[in-house]
Automatic annotation (TrEMBL):
<keyword id="KW-0862">Zinc</keyword>
<dbReference type="Pfam" id="PF17432">
    <property type="entry name" value="DUF3458_C"/>
</dbReference>
<dbReference type="InterPro" id="IPR038438">
    <property type="entry name" value="PepN_Ig-like_sf"/>
</dbReference>
<dbReference type="InterPro" id="IPR045357">
    <property type="entry name" value="Aminopeptidase_N-like_N"/>
</dbReference>
<dbReference type="InterPro" id="IPR042097">
    <property type="entry name" value="Aminopeptidase_N-like_N_sf"/>
</dbReference>
<dbReference type="InterPro" id="IPR027268">
    <property type="entry name" value="Peptidase_M4/M1_CTD_sf"/>
</dbReference>
<dbReference type="GO" id="GO:0016285">
    <property type="term" value="F:alanyl aminopeptidase activity"/>
</dbReference>
<dbReference type="InterPro" id="IPR014782">
    <property type="entry name" value="Peptidase_M1_dom"/>
</dbReference>
<dbReference type="InterPro" id="IPR012779">
    <property type="entry name" value="Peptidase_M1_pepN"/>
</dbReference>
<keyword id="KW-0479">Metal-binding</keyword>
<dbReference type="InterPro" id="IPR024601">
    <property type="entry name" value="Peptidase_M1_pepN_C"/>
</dbReference>
<dbReference type="Pfam" id="PF17900">
    <property type="entry name" value="Peptidase_M1_N"/>
</dbReference>
<dbReference type="GO" id="GO:0006508">
    <property type="term" value="P:proteolysis"/>
</dbReference>
<dbReference type="GO" id="GO:0008270">
    <property type="term" value="F:zinc ion binding"/>
</dbReference>
<dbReference type="Pfam" id="PF01433">
    <property type="entry name" value="Peptidase_M1"/>
</dbReference>
<keyword id="KW-0378">Hydrolase</keyword>
<keyword id="KW-0645">Protease</keyword>
Amino acid sequence: MTDHKQRAAVKLSDYTPPAFRVEHIDLYFSLGEEYTRVRSRMRLCRAEGTDPHTPLHLDGEALELEALYLDGQALAIDDYLLTRQGLTIERVPDRFELEVHTLLRPQDNTALSGLYRSGGMFCTQCEAEGFRRITYYPDRPDVLSRFTTTIEADRERYPVLLSNGNAVDRGESEGGRHWVRWDDPWPKPSYLFALVAGDLHCHRDRYRTASGRDVQLAFYVEHANAGRTGHAMESLKRAMRWDEETYGLEYDLDIYMVVAVGDFNMGAMENKGLNIFNTQYVLASPETATDADFEAVEAVIGHEYFHNYTGNRVTCRDWFQLSLKEGLTVFREQQFSEAMGSPAVQRIQQVRLLRSAQFPEDASPMAHPVRPDAYVEINNFYTATVYIKGAEVIRMYHTLLGDGAFRNGVRRYLERFDGQAVTIEDFLQTMAETGGRDLTQFGRWYTQAGTPRLRVRDAFDADAGRYTLRVVQECPPTPGQPAKQPFHIPLAMGLVGRDGQALPLRLAGEPEGQATTRVLELTRSEQAFVFEGLAERPVPSLLRGFSAPVILDYDYSDDDLAFLLTHDSDAFARWEAGQQLAVRVILRRVHGERREEDLDKLRRAFAGVLEHPGLDASLAAEALALPQETYLAQQLEQADPVAIRAAREGVRAELAGALAATWRTVYSRYRPQGPWRLEPAAIAGRRLANLALGYLAATGAAEDDERVERQYHQADNMTDSLAALSLLADRDDAAAQAALDDFHQRWRHVPLVLDKWFRVQAMSRHPGALARVQSLLRHPDFDLHNPNRVRSVIGAFAQGNPAAFHDSSGEGYRLLADHILRLDTLNPQVAARMALPLSKWQRYDLPRQQIMKTELQRIAEAPSLSNDVYEVVSRSLE
Ligand code: PHE
Ligand code: ZN
């Protein structure tokens, strides 16, 4: 059996402070087509209190060392030790200058970490440990230094030369080359370093801060993408304003630059003053981007901007603290999105994502706490747990402390630790102090993995008018953590009277109160809450707003759920009630149980949503969407994704038929008239109309099939075009094929749109989807070098098409494993991510488990596997 412990794990408990500080680093890049030379000049000094004999160790990876000078003296080969991990100089003075010359070949860097090429440009990605692929350096986040960077390159090919901070000098050099020098006044860790060179279009604007300073804003894109940065620019200005108004934080440099690159492992990167973005989260125009894309651009622009404080001004001491910056920044991003749009819809979408991405992770061999305590490859820990469960943890501080104390706490944290690299503990302490609360037990959210389950039972004593809620909390074992201590859980709840009215909540011993939502604080494994003054048995509304990342278990009747869907005052709870009702109906089908009244219940519930007088189209679209297949699978001990697909599609088809007339009315009433506009009402209209179209596609009526085709051909925007195309991709008739061909023909030169063409087919609900994926992987436009393309075929298939991926033949697993092995030689980080669906093998039936494990084993045994993939597959098999 393979064992990830065979490869050295980094442990939180081994942390030691850096032995040397870098006071200043001056970098010189000479960029070339064959190779690039980097000269680094550093002023180093021994950290106070460090043993004077401690050697100097600098991290370095995949580098060619050309020369090394200590205080101007060239070092000979036996003055230092060079390994695959770096460079060690045994004896150094307390203060000295070190000059390092390295040679790189960015054009061969397919891992997209360090300095690499994307299209015609050079760019960098240094988080987490990419800087060591540029030069030898103490590449850890608790070493902060002042950077100056000079970039020299061919003037024609690379007219634009960018790095962090302000451009302070520029000039011409021999052979048609030029250079620009950048100075970043803010000390920063190496992971925030960035460099870009290329022939780029620039969209400029400016922003006046609250205190009246002018900041230049500059978005750089390849010329072909000019004209598609308007939305990102406006989003940035909104984010800057929002952070001033909400947290009193003003931007701290004279220029803010964003560069869009087509080859990028992640979404975007918050490099100081020079964000580098995946094109996916910058470019948006109505013809090429969906409403969801527009929304994602705004969110990611906000996210990276908010990092300027939560991450850059105050950074992480070590990578175990990653959620210190990511959880907090995702939460700030969520607050921003809630402020820009509908808070309830945002919350529903956040929870949907948490349940589809994080809960399964928490239930898998890859489960880890929000603050992990060991890793082999840090890139594997940019996870749903660290990011979005991390954000849920921040949201719970907000719930427990209240908005005012929360904001004061964040501000105090940023002031107290400005310019430092700190820990989650520092944040927690500051919040506890500011809120005047003991958060010791709350800290378990950072150290214990797994999704807690709340079992709620109730009793009503009619004579005493007393209603008791008894709550038991449990958390299943996770790797290395067989038993858990109780969590501190905020449980927001209300009670709804039989007439649908919210009831005042008065706990035993309390005076009269008017509150109709309260936050119960759970701290013990079992607790009871007694409410008094109730004339009749209420229906409890539990976990309002999804106040904690837990699984709630309360035995509602179907009628209770339908009742809450109509009457609950909390929009999230209403949505949740509708979803739970649908979950039940679909799961009964999975179990072969067909109840006559089931469909009727759902039909009435859905019709009720649509007939509601104050109908909010965007909320309705959420409420009428059937629960995702992955979420349904989680409700079962062992899932058969093919059976789940069949049951869910069966229910969809029946709802389509039973409500056909309604869907047609909704479709024509809500489809926005006139030209495309990015306005809340129009966006909501498109959502609801496209949801209706989705049902109509399942009626089997020719008129509805034609409606889908018509929408595809008449659409003047990508939202409507893609909604129709994805329904067509579920069919295999001539009209569907014609539309797919048309789309390819039209968009084959626009990579982000071509990704959509691949994605809709990879996610097709057609029974032949697996075969189609096989041919997509051989398509001339498929490219294993481009992460967006890989995600749009392999990722979409393995994560977004469970019934095809889990085909009982095992072909889906084999195909994935084959591609992981090929991808691992090019880009280990992305390869490891693609392997994650296999890590969830325990959730499926035994025959599937067997094949999944065989494929994991086959990957594990491959020679020269990267640490990235090795860690995922070996943990999965433990
Ligand atoms: N720090 C980036 C973010 O969350 C994500 C990222 C991590 C990007 C690692 C690249 C590499 O905004
Ligand atoms: Zn982030």
